[in-house]
Design goal:
single chain, alpha/beta, Spore Coat Polysaccharide Biosynthesis Protein SpsA, Chain A, six-stranded mixed sheet, two-stranded antiparallel sheet, 6 helices, 31% helix
Length: 238
Amino acid sequence: MSIVAIIPARGGSKRIPRKNLRPFCGKPMLAWSIEAARAARVFDSILVSTDDEEIASLAGAHGAEAPFRRPAALSDDHTPTLPVIAHALDWVRRNRGPVSFACCIYATAPFLQPQFLRQGLRLLESHADAEFAFSVTSYDFTIFRSLKLNSDGRVAMYWPENELKRSQDLPEAWHDAGQFYWGRPQAFAAHQGVFTASSYPVILPRHLVQDIDTPEDWQRAEAMFSALRQSQPAGQNA
């Protein structure tokens, strides 16, 4: 029984073209995720699921594998993550044998640190009822005083009863950090979603979380990443 990392990295990207290959703070974006997976030292293999030959070549150059090509039906803008991981796991099962645990690592996760990958694996190993363990972080302002903009141009509160409450008296809320998802192979195959009572959180500090979906996101992420590296002792990975 093996433990595998699967990094989905298709060639097409509309908002940031070729973003998986684009240089980010000195390395191709995809290389950062591969590096974190290797540094975690828990995986028997690190596979990149791609439809793109250039990405496959880059994966091999940085210590991962791309032994199959993802079919076009799983490579468009609307394909969810879970079927992509299930497809990769099916390939591993048929060609290399059974898998005990798998981890989906996003290709655009340069802030990912190896200790959080190890923590996610420990959660699955120590909780027999766990199907998934994934990265989360807290909102930087309470969502329970959030506003909406009505069609008439006016504002309204989603929870008006909270307007006069202090933010520190309202519950803390969390969101998916979008870095990794540990899971059991049967859970990925079921395609039932990750955010359930059978999932456990790996809590990340907010300064290690940044979505990278738009050019503005990219610029913010590079600034954050550069500042983080400057604040760390020499030789320590971000």
